[in-house]
Specification:
Layout: H1 6-26, H2 28-40, H3 45-56, E1 60-64, H4 71-80, E2 86-90, H5 97-101, E3 102-107, E4 112-117, E5 124-128, H6 135-147, E6 149-152, E7 155-158, E8 164-169, H7 182-185, E9 188-193, H8 199-210, H9 224-236, H10 241-255, E10 269-271, H11 275-291, H12 299-310, E11 315-316, H13 318-322, H14 327-337
Parallel strand pairs: 1-8, 1-9, 2-5, 5-8
Antiparallel strand pairs: 3-4, 6-7, 10-11
Helix pairs in contact: 1-9, 2-4, 3-11, 9-11, 10-11, 11-12, 12-14
Length: 341
């Protein structure tokens, strides 16, 4: 990092050294969570790190992959490593908004109405196969994700802290599904595409599941207060102005490709990332630096989380779909062309 004034450089380097020491202390529990998750989840370190990034950056996460890749198990395992409330909602076409947020109940004895909260009132909400729910349920979840509150009848209730929606969807089956609208997918900080495990990992998965021994269980290693404290520390991770400019350049390249020597993508992108994409990319990069036990963001942190932050925030034109151009390909080209600080 370059500074124009030597005294400023000295002060800043001292501050960053102190910040590094603070991050080292505050991030110690991350290793404990990883150890507990590895008891249950074989491989899939990429997914585990993205779950932690979303957790620390106060964002929601959408996991997409074929059935059997331990999406639900990973989310369930993460929640068990924390002393927090967890609820699982299996999304189906007949699900109603009241099944999610709660409803108003009439008490015949007292002659009064009372509100009964739904399963969304938890620290961790697993929305399993979220794309199987109709639009009314999607919109009910939208308020909870964005506003961190739920309205039942004429009353509004704040959701507990921390609050996080961890959703899964199956890209294979399209029958009986309702594709998530762009407005809702944009509320997810990260969209993670999962792949099959490696051969050696799959052999270990078989041994664990067919063994006569009890299936391993994770132990709680931290409390919600620890997560809130860590989130505060993540916000303090130092981000240089050059890194901020790098993030803005990446997002702007999705909006005006020609300004970044990407004229070939002008007719392939129907819309680019919004300011929420820039905010999410900055926070995710800070959280990634945090789990690396570092008190400052480097360009590699931004590049590491870029695809997960942007893949669901870039709209493809019909021309792009006809040519089988993916958002991942566009993001890769943007990262190759945009100047790295």
């Amino acid at each position: 990092m370059e500074f124009s004034d030597s005294s400023t450089a000295t002060t800043t380097s001292t501050d960053i050294r102190a910040l590094n020491e603070m991050i080292q202390r505050e991030s110690a529990f991350i290793d404990l969570i990883r150890m507990e998750m590895k008891k249950v989840i074989v491989g899939q370190e990429y997914m585990a790190d993205r779950l932690l990034i979303a957790l620390l950056a106060d964002g929601h996460i959408l996991l997409e992959g074929v059935p059997g890749l331990a999406k639900t198990l990973a989310i369930n395992t993460l929640s068990k490593t924390i002393h927090a409330d967890f609820s699982r909602i299996q999304f189906t076409p007949d699900l109603l908004p009241a099944d999610l947020v709660g409803t108003t109940i009439y008490n015949a004895k007292t002659g009064e109405f009372s509100n009964k909260p739904g399963p969304v009132f938890a620290n961790f909400v697993l929305a399993d196969e979220i794309n199987r729910a109709p639009a009314k349920v999607q919109s009910a979840l939208l308020e909870a994700m964005q506003e961190r509150q739920v309205t039942i009848g004429d009353k509004t209730y704040p959701l507990p802290k921390p609050f996080m929606v961890l959703a899964t969807q199956n890209p294979v089956e399209q029958e009986g599904t309702y594709p998530l609208p762009e407005a809702q997918t944009d509320r997810f900080m990260l969209k993670v595409i999962l792949d099959y495990p490696k051969i050696e990992d799959e052999k270990q998965i078989i041994r664990m599941n067919v063994s006569s021994a009890d299936f391993p269980k994770p132990n709680p290693v931290c409390k919600p207060e620890d997560i809130l404290k860590a989130r505060s520390a993540v916000r303090q991770v130092y981000m240089d102005e050059k890194i901020e400019q790098y993030i803005v350049d990446i997002v702007y390249a999705t909006r005006v490709p020609r300004d970044y020597r990407l004229e070939e993508f002008t007719h392939l992108i129907s819309f680019g990332g919004s300011p929420r994409a820039s905010i999410s990319l900055a926070l995710a990069a800070k959280a990634y630096a945090f789990i690396q036990r570092r008190g400052y963001v480097i360009p590699e942190d931004v590049r590491a989380v870029c695809k997960d932050v942007l893949r669901h925030r870039i709209g493809l034109s019909y021309e792009a779909e006809a040519e089988n151009i993916t958002t991942e390909h566009i993001i890769s080209e943007i990262l190759n062309r945009v100047e790295v600080p």
